[in-house]
Design brief:
With 240 residues, this protein is an alpha/beta fold. The protein has 2 domains: 178 residues, Rossmann fold (3-Layer(aba) Sandwich); 53 residues, no CATH class. 42% of the residues lie in helices and 25% in strands. The longest helix is centred in the C-terminal third of the chain and has 18 residues. The radius of gyration is 18 Å and the shape is globular.
């Protein structure tokens, strides 16, 4: 998904020398993109192992990035610390959405930018989440992360305090060896599907696996045994 981070940095007009915070950075796609533009980048996530993968990638590309364990709902930085805050398919998964949005606004300087890449409810990932929800319903009172993928949801989270909000619908294309390969990768590495499989018994796992395979086959556009699935997301730039 490196291409998403590169596109987001272009949309947010990340400039050389600016201070940039990547929130829920995972293994650093957007952090690396910002560092390639000679920004002063701090990459954060609450999973140390993911940050370590980002560190390995940054070292390989000889990019100076600071890595720090941090919770998106409680960022350990003073008010107005950064010119830009970014998150690609990351902060949208914070359980307390208003709190995460408030933290993004808080750490950005007045007039700074917040750049987000968020999956939409109507795209492929939204459909996949509905399958996941059939087998592992979300905890009571927890809003869907796909709220971040709607204009109405973003306005609820940011609108009153955002000087400007630009939203563009974009597409990321998943490319895998097969539907089974996709399930293996997402069962192993993607939090929502990993947790769903872990919570089920053997019969449930087989049923869940079959439901995912059915969805993947119905969405596949490769015309052959490999997997090609366009997935809609929105690219958002908010001026604080």
């Amino acid at each position: 998904m490196q291409i998403v981070g590169e596109s987001l940095c272009e949309a947010a007009e990340v400039l050389a020398g600016e201070t940039v915070l990547d929130v829920a950075a995972g293994n650093g796609n957007t952090s690396l993109a910002a560092a390639r533009r000679f920004a002063d980048v701090t990459s954060t996530d609450y999973v140390p192992a993911l940050l370590e993968q980002g560190r390995v990638r940054a070292d390989a590309d000889r990019l100076p990035i600071m890595f720090r364990v941090a919770d998106a709902e409680n960022l350990p930085f003073p008010d107005g610390s950064f010119d830009v805050a970014l998150s690609s398919f990351g902060v949208m998964f914070a359980p307390n959405q208003p709190r995460a949005a408030t933290e993004l606004r808080r750490v950005v300087k007045p007039g700074g930018r917040i750049g987000l890449a968020n999956w939409t409810p109507d795209g492929f990932v939204g459909k996949m989440f509905r399958v996941v929800g059939r087998f592992a319903p979300p905890a009571p009172g927890v809003s869907s992360p796909l709220t971040w993928g709607t204009e109405a949801g973003l306005k609820d989270l940011f609108g009153a305090r955002a000087a400007d909000m630009r939203i563009e619908r974009k597409r990321y294309v998943f490319r895998y060896l097969s539907p089974e390969h996709f399930v293996y990768v997402f069962r192993t590495y993607f939090g929502p599907t990993y947790k769903a499989f872990a919570a089920l018994d053997d019969d449930g796992r087989r049923e869940f696996n079959g439901a995912l395979i059915d969805l993947l086959k119905s969405e596949n556009r490769s015309g052959g045994p490999t997997l090609v699935i366009p997935a809609e997301y929105i690219e958002v730039v908010i001026t604080a």
